[in-house]
Amino acid sequence: MNTPRSREGNLFRYIVYFIGYLMVAGVVKLVTLNSPLHVWDLILFGVISLMILLFYIYRFNREQRYFDHNFASVSWLGNFGLIVGLTLVVTALRISVAYLQATGKLQLYNFQTAYLKHESVTTYWFLLVAIGIILPILQEFLTSGFLFNYAFRRNTMVVAICGIIFSGVLFSILNWQFSFSLLVVNAIFGCLFAWSYLYTQTIWMPIYLAVVNGVILLIMT
Known about the structure:
Layout: H1 7-33, H2 39-63, H3 80-102, H4 110-117, H5 121-151, H6 157-174, H7 180-200, H8 204-219
Helix pairs in contact: 1-2, 1-5, 2-5, 3-8, 5-6, 5-7, 5-8, 6-7, 7-8
């Protein structure tokens, strides 16, 4: 019950992590709806997001000693070709989605619609930090790090595929949109990030790709 080998303990821990994410996402939603942005809103976001982020990092690093590592990990900095290739794939996919949105074939994301209503330089930079960097990092801890270490620990192809699909769906849910097509798009990105985690066996690869995705998304807004 005290280690990540316990299903009940893992479920409880994951619920706690999930609630932490909802707290940050809720603050982002609250601040985004305010126009203009207030200093206290930004302070609240900074405190909550930093607290949850440090909590995630501390717990993830502490629990690594319990997790199975049967395969040698591939250093994400040691495989420059993989980094460049996946960066290009994410960039190309994100630009393609932006093009489809510009031509009216895909709906805008919820935050894009909110930004257009309260367009300002301050709001843009807040969204860049919150949705482009902070939320993607937290999402990858939930959908790649903790999820695979708790629920998909067996080293088989079937488990890996199921985990990748489940991770993609969960990533899409965490980026909840009212458009089914955008849910599918987000699920594809989530599956790609999950695969990168399994391939490199390091949380920093999916985090890097998720941040690249988020930043490009904001740049293309």
